[in-house]
Amino acid sequence: MTNTLVKKNNTGKYIAIICLALVYILAILLDNFLPATSFTLMLIPVLQKGAIYALLCVSMNLLNGFTGLFSLGQAGFMLIGGYVYAAITIPAAQHDSVYQYFDSAIRFSIPEILSNVIGKGPGTIVGVIISLIIAGLIAALFAFLIGFPVLRLKSDYLAIATLGFAEIIRAVFQWEGLGAITNGSNQLRKYVTLSGMELNFGSFTLELGTLFLFVIVTVCVALVVLLINSSYGRALKAIRDDEIAAEAMGISLFKHKMISFIISSFFAGVGGALLAMFQTTIQANAFKSAMTYEILLMVVIGGIGSISGSCIASFLYIALSEWILRFLDEGSLFGLISVPFFRDGFRKVVFSVVIMIIVLFFSKGIMGDKEISFKGIGGLLTRLKNKKKKTAPAAEAVSEEGEANE
Amino acid sequence: MSNVLHVENVTMQFGGVVAVNNLSLDIPEGKIVALIGPNGAGKTTAFNCITGVYQPTSGLVEFMGKPMVRSTPKGKMKKQYKGQNKELYSSQSVIDPNPDHITKLGIARTFQNIRLWKSMTVFENVLIAKHMRAKQNVFSAIFRANAKEEKRMREETMALLQEQGLDKFKDELATSLPYGLQRRLEIARALATNPKLLLLDEPAAGMNPQETQELAEFIKQIRDKYNLTIFLIEHHMDLVMKISDYIYVIDFGSKIAEGVPEEIQNNQRVIDAYLGVADDDE
Predict the structure, then answer these.
(1) Are B220 and B206 within one domain?
(2) Is the CB of residue A69 less than 8 Å from the CB of residue A161?
(3) What DSSP designation does A106 have?
(4) Helix, strand and coil percent figures for chain B, each rounded to 5
(5) Does A234 touch chain B (CB under 8 A)?
(6) Do B210 and B268 share a domain, yes or no?
(7) Angle (CA) B81 B85 B90, round 5°
(8) ipTM exceeding 0.85?
(9) Residue A388: its pLDDT value, please?
(10) Which of A230, A237, A238 sits opposite B142 (nearest CB)?
């Protein structure tokens, strides 16, 4: 009995490692070796944006799905993260051309400083990682500060307060008084983007943009999963299920809500910085509340309280909205039959209907609050193998399939 | 013998309604003390004042000889206040702890309408109560730096479930248990916080006579096993009379009687409160 358990664990681990490795290899292949067809040119940005939104969804899910705090401040924290990242990675020489109307206050670039020390390729990558962490930390600092007044509020009031915060941040970042850092309402550009992630081996250049993004997102999501499966994660779920009982069992509501809020905002900040890398320019005006709603929508589609659901939903949503449903805007069905009402904006109509259907009839989302578990898949495979060996039907095993946890 | 809990002149007023009026009581160590009274007498409100859910309008609660809650009417309440001893604690600083602080000091409670965490298993329900006393912070928890602590929590939880006879249900959802076992699980969860004083809010509500009988034995057992002091609210008089060492009776927020079970059974005011007073005019 114990033997099979151990086996199950290991197969799960192997499957997880193999899947991750395959994704990483695919990322390298896409960036470097596969020919640039119209298919790959579409696939790469969709994968990149999907990965970024997966992180943003997971960070929102930590707050909304696991702690039960209905917060709508995501776009504000993303904005802070994105701007901080951009401001500290613009090369020193480019400051005058970026900050056209202002006297730039930050005249250093972390990736540049590190490039001088340990070489251009690795220096840029390490510098960007440090910059991402700083971006996350500044977003977390803001969360800590506004958490004091805001986290005393409940449900709708919290949503309104955090939404207001995001809008205020958006306005403040466009204010000319902060122009020395934020460049006023003008965009920031020329900072290190995903295409800057490369390693030189003599004459050969290895592009690492997509791989870098995937590794960062995996690490961040893994940290959230570790948090959720720890003692603190259980305490957060207890607060979600019943605040009064949680408090009576010695869980400090304010402290735990603050922890969740800060960690969620940290990852929102990192996600915002990654989005800035992906977009190559960043402007505060783009971080509207619609962006928060979009993320909330993905969280709901994936299942509130499911990390794997959030990841699946974000890739699905991005792929549909950016790519697969594009034909709805282009006037014809697969380029064969022209359909008169397939014109600009029809995609959004179809999308809205799909979303309404999901919310009305599948309100639990794709995953509900369950998780895909590699352990479960591993267990399933071993069971299938055993079934082949022994013809005896394992009725008990089937009943276990439903519980795919961890 | 020392008192674990000392409640002095606690008044809880909601607007014009005085839910608890000038209540004073003492709970000696190692005893089972009951608080009884007709529906709406203010028993649960008294519990909520002790456990920090409400801040009393006025009064003092001491736990293990140290002041734990202290309050005095302030703001609008100063004018509206209907209780007695308005100025009693006005010179002293207000102490208004959150419920989690009070649990940390060593008072655990159960609820009148069971409040288990619905989406979690029996095992997790008890495990979460262990979180409070775990020696770890967020980072050591995320990076699994203190795996021993987590292992210890799990082992202690398992041991507690075995002691309470709940180990065979450990992977079931808490809400899928039968009612009596849910009550028992709630008590087990409260025990997981290592309390000195256990407050039980109507532990026998909804139980049949057979289950009530078992519960009486169970309460005595856990008191002896975990060196607890128990303070309970209950409507089943046979249960109260059987296990209580001392009984307080309240009606309309005020204490109307106290004493050992025999005294209470023969107290005319208590009988009147429960059965209603005969109208003299007729």
Answers:
(1) yes
(2) no
(3) -
(4) 40, 25, 35
(5) yes
(6) yes
(7) 85
(8) yes
(9) 67
(10) A230
> Which burial class, exposed, middle or buried, applies to A129 when counting CB atoms under 10 A from its CB (0-12, 13-18, 19+)?
middle
What CATH code is carried by the domain that includes residue B218? 3.40.50.300
A155 closest CA partner among A43, A54, A63, A227: A63
- The radius of gyration of chain A from alpha carbons, rounded to an integer in Å, stands at 23
pLDDT tens readout for residues B137-177: 888 888 888 888 889 999 999 999 998 888 899 899 998 99
Q: How many CB pairs under 8 A join A and B?
A: 101
Closest CA to B188 of B125, B132, B120: B125
The reply to whether B89 and B156 lie within a common domain is no
Please give, rounded to a whole number of angstroms, the shortest distance from the CA of A113 to a CA of chain B: 30
Nearest chain B Cα to A224, which residue? B142
Give the helix ranges, DSSP H, for A90-178: 95-98, 110-118, 120-150, 155-173
Name the residue among A38, A51, A53 with its Cα closest to residue A323: A38
Element of type H or E holding A338: strand A337-338
Q: Are B98 and B141 part of one and the same domain?
A: no
> Do B76 and B34 have their domain in common?
yes
- How many percent of chain B have pLDDT more than 90? 43
Q: What is the pLDDT of residue B279?
A: 57
Residue B280: what pLDDT? 56
Question: Which pLDDT score, from 0 to 100, does residue A8 have?
Answer: 47
How far is A256 from chain B, CA to nearest CA, in Å? 10
With a cut of 50, list the residues of chain A below it in pLDDT. Answer: 1-8, 391-406
Using CA atoms, how far residue A265 sits from A258, B65, B195, in Å, is 10, 43, 36
**Is the domain of B146 the same as that of B178?**
yes
pLDDT tens digits, one per residue of B95-114: 888 899 999 999 999 998 89
Q: Which of B179, B194, B209 is where one domain is finished?
A: B194
- Model confidence over B221-273: pLDDT tens digits? 999 999 999 999 988 888 898 899 999 999 988 899 899 988 888 888 888 88
Residue where a domain terminates, one of B178, B194, B210: B194
Could you give phi then psi for residue A206, rounded to 5 degrees?
-100, 115
Amino acid, res. A45: P
Range of the domain at B141: 115-194
What SS3 state is found at A206? strand
Residue of A nearest to B192 (CA): A249
**CATH class, A44-288 region:** mainly alpha
**pLDDT given at position A346:** 80
Q: What residue spans define the domains of chain A?
A: 44-288
B52 and B28 assigned to the same domain: yes
Same domain, B102 and B212: yes
Buried b (16+ CB within 10 A) or exposed e, A329-351: ebeeeeeeeeeeebeeebbeeeb
Say what the pLDDT of residue A332 is: 64
**Residues 54-93 of chain A whose Cβ lies under 8 A from any Cβ of chain B:** none
Fill in the DSSP letter of residue B1: -
- Are A198 and A108 spatial neighbours (Cβ–Cβ below 8 Å)? no
Please answer yes or no on whether B131 and A253 come within 8 Å at the CB atom.
Answer: no
Sign of the CA dihedral B178, B183, B188, B190? positive
CB contacts of B50 in chain A (<8 Å) are: none
Structural domain tally of chain B?
A: 2
Residue A316 touches partner B, C-beta closer than 8 Å = no
Contact across the interface for A248 and B133, Cβ inside 8 Å: no
Residues of A whose CB is below 8 A from B193: 249-250
% chain B with pLDDT above 70:
96
